[in-house]
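Re: [ENG-882] Designed sequences occasionally contain unexpected residues at chain ends

Forwarding the minimal case from QA. Structure tokens:
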């Protein structure tokens, strides 16, 4: 096998492997957005802050980030995506409204007359009500049954892009292609 035949064979092998490598790069780029909390197109655009005190923006259970995967790979194109139903509204932003049904459930009382759920002694200084001092134990704080009901909602979501076309991703893909072709030509 001549040197030229070996280079051509290496280039063919690299070209066959590139779509899979590009798809992996694109998936990792999208998942990296959850770590950096920004969208990187021509420059970095930080995500809007969330009102939550704990946790990370867009990461409650990790389902959305974990769901990003390779959808379709052909020799000329790569498609990545997610099957999570709320992905689009988080990525693009917007409003959703409708009606939801809340199932009947039991609600545990976290407070009784201003006291937190812990053991305490209840007394009153109001002389018109004659209530003797009573020791309330932490486990006796009440609960109530809530009937099933419907409620309307109108929610606004700020766009926090994590997937889509990006100049930075295209630059990384071009760099990967150059590296792989260079390796194929030099035989490394």
């Amino acid at each position: 096998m001549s040197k030229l035949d070996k280079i051509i064979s290496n280039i063919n092998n690299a070209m066959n492997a590139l779509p899979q490598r590009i798809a992996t790069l694109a998936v990792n780029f999208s998942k990296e957005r959850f770590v950096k909390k920004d969208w990187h197109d021509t420059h970095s655009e930080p995500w809007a802050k969330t009102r939550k005190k704990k946790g990370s923006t867009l990461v409650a259970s990790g389902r959305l980030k974990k769901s990003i995967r390779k959808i379709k790979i052909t020799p000329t194109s790569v498609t990545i995506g997610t099957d999570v139903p709320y992905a689009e509204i988080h990525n693009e932003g917007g409003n959703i409204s409708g009606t939801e049904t809340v199932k009947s459930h039991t609600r545990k009382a976290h407070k009784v007359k201003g006291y937190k759920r812990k053991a305490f002694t209840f007394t009153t200084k109001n002389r018109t009500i004659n209530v003797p001092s009573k020791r309330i134990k932490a486990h006796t704080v009440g609960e109530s049954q809530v009937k099933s009901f419907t409620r309307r909602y109108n929610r606004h979501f700020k766009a926090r892009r994590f997937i889509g076309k990006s100049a930075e991703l295209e630059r990384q893909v071009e760099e990967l292609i150059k590296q792989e072709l260079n390796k194929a030509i030099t035989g490394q």
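QA comment: On inspection the terminal residues look reasonable. Helices lie at 3-36, 63-67, 87-92, 167-186. Proposing we downgrade this to a documentation issue.
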